[in-house]
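Let's see one such:

===
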Amino acid sequence: MAVRIAQVDPTNRASATSLRATLRILMMRLVKFRLPLAAATISCASATRRAATRVAPALAATLFGALSLAALPARAAPSIAQYDQPKYPASFTHFDYADPDAPANGTLNFENYNELQSYDSLNPFLVRGAPAPDIQNLMFDTLMQRSWDELASEYPLIADDVDVARDLSAATFHINPAARFSNGDPITASDVKYSLDTLKSPQASPLLNSQFSVIKRATVIDKSTIRFDFARPERDAPLIAGDIPVFSPKWGMTPDGKRPPFDQISNVPPIASGPYLIAQRKNDKDIDYVRNPDYWAANLPARRGMYRFERIRFKLYLDQYTQLEAFKAGDADVKVEYSATQWARKYVGKNFKSGLLKQVNVPDDPAQMQGLLINLRKPKFQDVRVRHALTLAFDYDWMNRMMFYGQYVRLNSYFDASPFGATGLPSQKELALLEPFRSSLPPEVFGPMVKQPDTLPPNSLRGNLRVARDLLAQAGWHYRDGALRNANGDPLTIEIIDDEPGMDRLILPYMQALGMLGIQAHMRELDSALYQKRLDNFEYDMTTYIYPPVTIPGAELERRFGSKAATEVGSENYPGIKSKAVDALVHAALAANNLDDLEAATRALDRVLINSYYLVPEYYSPNSRIGYKTTLAYPKIVPITYQAEDWIISYWYKKPQAALSAPAPVSAPSAAH
């Protein structure tokens, strides 16, 4: 589901769900639930009724065209899993974390879906404009549906069957003949091809082109069958194909039958493939979605118990403080809280005393990597010793004690709270991957996994700053004439940009510590549009950023850390990482044939990233903090991996009048692997 922009004050960028404005449009189903997956063996469930009619392998090769590798028998199945078998059999009726008997009625009054304070576009696939809240999730279905209680499995949605070539060079999807757009038109293979071709074209965001770059071409076999040929035989490719959002080529078409350029379709209501329609728009801060009474997929197993609200109403506020007051007054039904201070001190008042409102902490793994990015495109940051020194100046322990009420956990890994993060000494598999690059890597990469500096006794910030001063001196920066200067006499200055009101409470203590080193640091708060422009064009020294978590690392590694992405405007490689070692380890992760190989690659990558100090690691929250009206309820089982806002919109429901309270959450059963 959607990656969301954090409603962040200085007390939390940790449990935030954001990639900020760039990814708010593009990664909505691609990062956490519609996440890009890592290379691994693709497993299929038992063959469907259509498998018996499959042509023989030799004939299939003739019909489908020559593949880059010898065509082997495809495996037909209604669902696919990255490892072993899908948890749910072909006969499953609903996901364990869905309540198929939940009432389907009522209105959900929601506040800001992300950090956007307004919207000006109904097209979530463009880089230009601010899309209406949650429009992609609510109005655009994908070929298949990810489950939220497995590492990586997909189940039938628009597609009811998939054949994955054994050599992973192609996957063929069959479209459910019942699939319909909201205008009643059947969804065809041609519509799917149009959607993919459009998303990979210059008219859509370049990040979408990157997301689906593994798909070389789409070929329409017949009205209900489409084959995707892959540029590389990567294990994640079939699942990425299943993540394609589908939209109608008639969207935006003028009465005379002309279709405007896709990037000019921004204020025309979409022809939906998903469960909701736009009911009304009052202005650029309000929008109502209404459940499509003719939504064809409502009773599919992957949709049963999902989207139970008849109407979903978004009202956008200017800041998180106004949002909280509106929620406390009863104007909103639910609020996901991203401020430790507000959660600890502000959720009080008559509606809490009366029982109308309540708070709940729900476990939420894995962790995201959040930190202060360091822009290596600036010469002053290219020495790793300088970047290491900047990390030593961050006093997390004081912040957690004084500002966060002890609600956060320090990040020590890019893959914290998951099996993909490095711990202890490198394994033999990790060393085999790292050894070819020993001469270009910090020696610490080959030792115990680094732990971020702390200021708990007997350690102290002053002691950390002494180490930082020595590192800066080794890098050629010395204090003279009132500032830290290099051999040319240039002072070390740092501008930290942000677009969140109140972030100064987090950044100012850090700036003070930098000042003790002689570094002249200042903060500049920008409006969201200017901030995003500078971020997209890499015009910054440092800024706080969040890499949203994924259940299994995969294709997003290239976008975040690959050398090629470092020069692509609008890419996710914000630090500007250009490293042969990193590129090789990312490739090893994408080429992994099993979970052990993937873990070895990501752990080795983790060691290189952490010891290269591309950012100052901050912290994360192990829980989602949700305030809600007790007129709402949610299923007894909470999914293993979820985004709080998406979970609420997708699976919560209005409580029957007789019910008094929502059930207590429990963990979902683990997927079979």
